[in-house]
Amino acid sequence: MEKKNKQFFRTVAGKSLLFLIINLMLIVSFACVCAAFACIQEDFYRITEEEFYQNKSDATVYDNVMSDTENLIFFKHYSVDNLSLEVTDINGNQIVASADFNDAKTSAGQPGKYEDSELYTYDLQLVYGKDGKIKSIYGNTTSDDDIIVNATVKAYANPVFFSHFTSFDKQVIHFVFNMRYAIYPIAFICVIIGLAAFIALMCVAGKRPGSEEVTMGPLYKVPYDVLAFVTLFFTVPLFMLIEAANGIFEVIVGGTAFFIFINAMLGLCVSLSARVKCRELIRGTLVYKLIKLFIKAIFAIPLVWRTVLILAGVSVLELIVILASGAEGEVVVMTWFMEKLFFYPLIFYIAIMLRKLKNAGDKIAQGDITYRASTKWLWGDFKKHANNLNAVSDSVTIAVEERLKSERMKTELITNVSHDIKTPLTSIINYASLMGTADPADPKMSEYSEVVVRQSEKLKRLIEDLVEASKASTGNLEIIPAPLDCCTFISQTTGEFKEKLESAGLTLVTETPEDSVMIMADGRRMMRIYDNLMNNICKYSQPGTRVYISLETIDGNAVTTFKNTSSEELNISPDELVERFVRGDKSRNTEGNGLGLSIAQTMTELQGGKFKITIDGDLFKVSLSFPEIKDTETA
Q1: Which residue, 540, 546, 474, 468, is CA-closest to 507?
Q2: Position 559 confidence tier, pLDDT thresholds 50, 70, 90
Q3: How far apart are CA 100 and CA 82, in angstroms?
Q4: 149 by DSSP, 3-state: which?
Q5: I want to staple 459 with a disulfide (CB 3.0 to 4.6 A). Which of 32, 402, 424, 492 is the partner?
Q6: What integer pLDDT is reported at residue 230 of this predicted model?
Q7: d(Cα 30, Cα 32) in Å, to the nearest integer?
Q8: How far apart are CA 391 and CA 375, in angstroms?
């Protein structure tokens, strides 16, 4: 049920009903407020209804008596019917009286012209001038020579004649008098209901039945400030018509104007609520659009000319203020002129430097990373900012080159992995196929089997190296450091690779210190590093050359150096050599998978060492550096 009511108030009928409720509650509340003021003013809370009429009648009689007394004294006539009066001094001597006063006096209470007349008595203060004539009846003196004399006015009047309340007026007064205590809770209830209806109307503004989205109608395309101005322009002048109306027409015109104004304001509130919900209130105003257009036009002007226009406008405003202030004109204007003569060239120069920086920033933002901002004629922070822009451009250039290099290496990595896996796998498939079709007694079966086993072992080593390289690069390789003697590694390596070096036609030359050189490292990982480096030397060294392994202590570090002469031209950078699946043999005809150096470098760094490759012509050198530890540290 609640959902149906919610959907109903989103319809045109529901919104119109809310409008009607708000108007009705406003009218009733306004009437209650007016009635409350009337009750307080007329003292309805302390007198009876009959006393109210009596007081009004007495006040009307008093006003007419005073008015006719003035006319009788100053103009010798009066024009009020059913009223006869006499003015006497303090001794009872008659000063002035109406022509029918004596008749009214003798006829009062009898049928005739003055039937139901009553006697009213009021005190006066007559003011006499030097000429003996009465100047005022209220004691208002205008000169020290004036004489004030106390007097009394007696008047016979029919109170019914002076009662100006119609039957309709009396019905209204009777209703207000009876409701004088109930108007306050009625007004409070009406305000609460009207406020609730207003809140409900604001909530459903812009909403349609069956949808939670705010829908902007055709009227919402009109800027809100324009809509508000037009609404006020056509509604506010309606109240001016009230002054031109009289009596009942004044009430009708005033009520109509008030009704139109309230509904116009409600319409503006509804439009305001919908625009706020759509976040279009500020952006949808004409003032905002004009300001935005002005700012856009200003910023479309080049920076230097924009600076000129702004400074010119500020200067004109300053000059107007100076001239309007009434200060010493010549001195102030001269000071103003000298100030502009000094500061404006400096401001123009700053604007020119900013334009240079802006142009450089625009060029770099547009993708011209080779553009360099000119630092000529720049100083201070402007020159520093230009150098920063150039540094950003250099950094972007380096980043782009690194990205291209990385993309190229990724492509080569995929190609090399595919090649190194495909080669042994193809051999295995081919020889396995031959073994399946050949006679088991064929002597070549043994040769086929050896090829399959050899290629399987090669594929196994490749996969193991891949797994180990992946673990090393991600830091998941287990490292168990312990004190180790580097001299021992060199002697073990010499013994293990003696035959392999001789078969490759290489001569090993070692150089180690007499004393032990201790480091903290994992023995298994260190042997893997040495094996990878020696295998690399055996594969790629020029036959008939010497291979050097030396150990020395430099600045507290144990440095092991491997040096050999390459059989191939080393036209590759050291960084590329340690990339995975990169070989010095570009043709990839030698045995290996290109993971040896990469694994050696990663394992060295995981153990806290440093791995460095140096290429000098055909000389290939690898240095392993580990912090040396003393014997006391191992105890």
Answers
A1: 546
A2: very high
A3: 10
A4: strand
A5: 424
A6: 83
A7: 5
A8: 13
pLDDT in tens, 415-465: 555 655 666 677 777 767 767 777 666 677 777 677 677 767 766 766 666
| CA gap 84, 68 in Å, rounded | 9
Q: Which tokens sit at 5?
A: 């009511």
Question: Cβ-count burial of 506 within 10 angstroms (0-12 exposed, 13-18 middle, 19+ buried)?
Answer: buried
**Rg value, the chain, Cα:** 57
Measured in degrees and rounded to the nearest 5, phi and psi for residue 202 equal -65, -35
Q: Which domains does the chain have, with CATH numbers?
A: 2-34+168-215+248-276 (no CATH), 49-164 (no CATH), 301-365 (no CATH), 378-476 (1.10.287.130), 479-634 (3.30.565.10)
Cα four-point dihedral sign 225, 230, 235, 239: positive
Q: How far is CA 303 from CA 300, 310, 354, 358, in A?
A: 9, 10, 8, 9
Asked whether the beta carbons of 597 and 562 are under 8 A apart, the reply is no
What pLDDT does residue 337 have?
65
Closest among 403, 392, 402 to 369, alpha carbons compared: 392
Q: How many Å apart are CA 23 and CA 70, to the nearest integer?
A: 50
DSSP-assigned letters across all residues of 575-616:
HHHTSTT--S-TT--SS--S-HHHHHHHHHHHTT-EEEEEEE
CA distance 65 to 419: 130
pLDDT in tens, 146-195: 888 888 988 887 766 666 677 777 888 888 888 889 999 999 999 999 99
Reported as a single tens digit per residue, the pLDDT across 31-61 is 888 889 888 888 888 888 888 888 888 888 8
Q: What are the pLDDT digits (tens) for 477-501?
A: 677 888 988 888 888 888 888 888 8
- pTM of this structure: 0.45
Residue 562: its H or E element: strand 557-565
List, in sequence order, the alpha helices (H) in 156-217: 167-178, 183-204
Sequence-separated (6 or more) residues with CB below 8 Å from residue 6: none
CA angle 144, 147, 149 (to 5 degrees): 150
The position carrying tokens 């609730």 is 196
Which of the residue ranges 296-305, 391-400, 525-534 has the most confident prediction, judged by mean pLDDT?
525-534
**DSSP symbols for 85-97:** EEEEETTS-EEEE
First to last CA, the chain: 87
Chain centre to alpha carbon of residue 331: 48
Per-residue buried b or exposed e for 21-37, using 16+ beta carbons within 10 Å of the residue's own CB: bbbebbbbbeebeebbe
